[in-house]
Specification:
By secondary structure, the protein is α+β, with helices and mostly antiparallel strands. The chain is 28% helix and 21% strand.
């Protein structure tokens, strides 16, 4: 699957967003190395802490099916904002643990797109290496 096709799949996922409070819709699509795709959309809740972002929903779906960071080839995250959106801090932290640091992440709002990765978005992440286990 090409990057453009993956972005298009993420826009399809965005149609399932539930965002009555922010009215900011996010969709995501995770492409695994075996060709399998997983989708996510942001789902808001009046108790904002219970809200789940689209990219976390998609990555959690892949993990729920047994896929892990080495299985993930690429991620597309899209939004309907006026400017190019990026991941919130919580999502950056989650992605830093559940994706490889150099896994391509494509951001798009349908007007502009940018390719990045976890290393660029969160260069000084907190990880399992920081824990005294």
């Amino acid at each position: 699957m090409s990057k453009e096709e993956l972005v298009n799949e993420a826009f399809k996922a965005m149609k399932n967003a539930y965002a009555p409070y922010s009215r900011y819709h996010v969709g995501a699509c995770v492409l695994c190395k075996d060709g399998r795709t997983f989708y996510g959309a942001n789902i808001e809740n009046a108790s904002y802490g219970a809200t789940n972002c689209g990219e976390r929903s998609a990555v959690y779906a892949a993990y729920s099916y047994g896929y892990r960071k080495d299985d993930i080839e690429m991620v597309a995250i899209v939004s309907d904002g006026k400017r190019l959106g990026s991941c919130c801090g919580i999502c950056r932290q989650v992605l830093s643990e559940l994706l490889n640091a150099d896994t391509p992440i494509i951001l798009s709002n349908g007007i502009e797109s940018r390719e990045t990765n976890v290393m660029e978005m969160l260069p000084y992440d907190f990880s399992v290496e920081d824990l005294d286990l």
